[in-house]
Amino acid sequence: MTPNDATATTAAPAPVTSADGREPILRARRLVKTYGRVVGLDGASLELYPGEVLAVIGDNGAGKSTLIKCLTGAEIPDEGEIWLEGRPVHFKRPQDARAAGIETVYQGLAVSPALDIASNLFLGREVRRKGVLGSVFRMVDQKGMRQRARDELNALGISTLQDVTVAVENLSGGQRQAVAVARAAAFGSKVVVLDEPTAALGVRESNQVLELIMSLRDRGIPVILISHNMPHVFEVADRIHVQRLGKRAATITPQSHSMTDAVAIMTGASAG
Q1: Which CATH number describes the domain made up of 1-7+22-101+188-272?
Q2: Which stretches of sequence are listed as region Disordered (predicted)?
């Protein structure tokens, strides 16, 4: 089954539009995921609209990671539906989500330190040279990949990575994060998911990553941001999905609620 395969009997969900009339590009409805007696998701729902940054916050054990894994093919929900651009999708592995245009940058980054920047951007998607050299001898187009890598970094405004031939092991933590985000932006045609992208980074490098997130939004790429860092969430998020006890407790905005309000909803002190 391909990522966009749908069963003929699946009924379309009721329309959920934003204030300006947009429909979600990605929607999850009543997702359930259990691990034996442990409930990871208990009817969780989520909507991501075009051109927005949606932050997902919640206490440890709230189901944030499980929700994201279901949306990106790392886990298969026991119940519920996922819709991408108005069509039901059934991701059975991360490759299915990537093929559908959903790219994920996990906290571990998954970069190869020994390879250079350009090779990391095209890791697993290497471009072969044209003609016999590519089809028969399977030679990669190193020059073409390096040029596209430069173009992608420039489009995101990443000025600290001018030499794409530098090995990733020689980069700082923030620069490595930039490489991972650039890779997601290059191939995430519909959605980019960022899992704790500023964790373990200093103030300056964290600010650079936040600028990258806003650059993605400016390019029209919707972003799901999972973070424990409330100041960062309130700086870049358009909407904030609050996860609690395996389901959505509330969806708020930085304009409608304060950080204190968000924490109260997370802990159950407030219903939102």
Answers
A1: 3.40.50.300
A2: 1-20
